[in-house]
Amino acid sequence: MAGLPGSLVPSPFRVQRVRRETYDTFTIELEPANGADGFPFAAGQFNMLYVFGVGEVPISISGDPTKRQTLVHTVRAVGTVTQALRRLKRGDVVGVRGPFGTHWPVEEAVGSDVVVVAGGIGLAPLRPALYYLLSNREKYGRIALVYGARTLQDLLYKSELEKWRSHLDLEVEVSVDTAAASWRGNVGVVTTLIPRVQVDPFHTVALVCGPEVMMRFTVRELESRGIEPEDIFISMERNMKCAIGFCGHCQFGSTFICKDGPVFCYAEIQPFFAKREI
Amino acid sequence: MNRGSLQDRELAVLERDRFQQLLDVLGERGYRVRGPTVRDRAIVYDDLTSVADMPVGWTDEQDGGTYRLKRRNDGALFGYAVGPDSWKKFLHPPVVRLWRAKRGDNGFQIVDEPEEVAKSAFIGVRPCEIHAIAIQDKIFLNGEYRDPFYQARRQDLFIVALNCGHAGGTCFCVSMNTGPKAKFGFDLALTEVLEADRHYFVVEVGTELGAEILREVPHEAASEEEKAAAERVVAKTASEMGRAMDTRDIEALLHRNYENPRWDDVAKRCLTCGNCTMVCPTCFCTTVEDLTDLTGEHAERWRKWDSCFTMDFSYIHGGSVRASAMARYRQWMMHKLAGWIDQFGTSGCVGCGRCITWCPVAIDITEELSAIRQSEHES
Amino acid sequence: MTMETLERMLTEHPFFKGLNKRCLQLLVGCASNVRFNAGEVIFREGEEAGLFFLIRHGKVVVETFAPNRGPIVIQTLRDGDLLGWSWLIEPFRWRFEARAVELTRAIALDGTCLRGKCEEDHELGYELMKRVAHVIEDRLQATRLQLLDVYDSVRS
User: Fold this and answer.
1) What is the span of the domain harbouring residue A65?
2) Chain A residues 163-182 with CB within 8 Å of chain B
3) Closest chain B CA to residue A248
4) What does the alpha-carbon distance between residue C63 and residue C75 come to, in Å, rounded to a whole number?
5) Predicted pLDDT of residue B308
6) Predicted ipTM of the assembly
7) CATH number at residue A165
8) Which chain B residues are Cβ-neighbours of A4 within 8 angstroms?
């Protein structure tokens, strides 16, 4: 049989830049090495990033979907492959398979208010959605970003957060779990910020991403504010190997997170979201 | 493979002493012929060139956690049910190299080597196994992505089906509507008939290609008596099922019983050894391994069978999502009986009974389902 | 289990210390004696908060779970503790799971029924609210202290 499809075989991408975000998180910027025009993707999708001879990991795309020449990922260095990615330098080559998965419903949300709730590194898969929303600002009602992290040092994209806050038509609420007295910002879990957000619950779409426990509590908070399960979207994560629905590892209930997710409408997965060990 | 319509199907008779010729014709046509043979005290599937290598005169005795071969008092070629192997070992191989690459100018280069896979002929495919192959076709060929490795092995596959003459102790194909007679998915389907003075096969032609192959093997048209004899064989098998599974409303039943205490009960017995996933003809989960050599210049990616019973299977962020044996058994059974229906439109279970036979502690999927159903009536 | 025994149990339980006889009488109608075996799940996250419990003897853990960490114990409750206040506070759903870790005997109270009684009888309502608020305050203080992570002096 002739050459294997791109869904199975990584394409080479050249590292343009590796930028430190926090003590364990970095952002890597890539460009196609084989002369391709760019990398089209939708906000919320992910790629499988391959380090030659080391291994492959699923990482959400964290860049701007309209700037396709550069492919951006924000990665937490927790294992062999992600640590190898962090050590790469400009000019090194990384393998990319993708994009895979479902995306944030930014087009379907046109005309509604949008609340984006991010916990920790959960802001990375949401950033492309924010870029999209902001570059089509007139199509949406109120937009609010609610973002929580463990400490000040764990906040991602600090300069962008400030830039977004300076857009007077975007609400940005940030909170940390613990901080020293010199921090004048909010302290407390991210769910405590939700009641403050100025959106119309009957015309709001919520996009949520973060650790699963945080998403569970966030969804409860959103529901108690009157937002319907059909209007809440979350991004799930499970062990992933093939990214194309064949290896079976990413199953979550009856869904495959690589194909039916990672972005899910909460109403669809509600029956097993709060169940243990699913 | 084409499906012949019911009207087209002719029934022929092939004498036992002509069976070798069938194998020879397929070999001459360039097929890699595979079929049953005895090895390591079990009947397994392997390359087959001679009838002498088949399990002539053997039968199996199966029950929960038990498999024994016994001698028959006749020379039946197919006088047994199914063994630990299933045809997925050929179509969805346990170990496959996906690709290899070497360092190059543009970082790395995938070495483009089209796979050379000879077309296969499978001898003695049981109706439940035909269903299993059809189910795996849905997974690997009919979805958003197509698996080229499965496709290469599946295309041009010639299937000689075998309508079962012996019900294994753990079989329940009747209640799963998958046997003991093959209704589709074959080029030729045989029913073995053993009479005092005669040993023959009634042959049903399923496709044009099947007819073509049959034309090269001496055969006769089947008489009414011979057709009736074949029907009797199948009917007898159908009446001797070891178990049954009640699949009424199975998805809803299982989905409302995520927290049924029966799961804790089976978890006390389950060793999470994964035997069931290895022998199940539809289980398809795999893992991927990236390898390199000491020079660091070459890399390979391999795919291997995996099992949802391992702790690694659901590992993320420092722990397994399904850490308990309970959660892993529940995942397997719920996926097999209910999840598959959502995902692929069909049950994942074909009633072959292998998981019951090969479970070292004799956990019986039909009994577990039954217990869950019962528990609802009691509450 | 007679009404008198139930009434005596309620009177003796620390949670109802100081409650007047009239209110106690109202409670007895909604009360029953229950027991949980070791390992038994008492209620699960997301379920409607119907019954709540006053632990008489035994040990119960309040927990949540994270996919990679498994069950995480938030707090351990023992003799004399109140288990569950979500029956009194909207949306009347349990936020966590509760499980008996030892054989536990408790008084179960029908929260839905009691809520109704509180709406009609504000004195009863206030008495219960006072006691529940006290428990919530204690637990909140404890949680804040837990969050301070006072034992770990190395991390920033």
Assistant:
1) 11-100
2) none
3) B285
4) 7
5) 98
6) 0.93
7) 3.40.50.80
8) 98-99, 110, 148
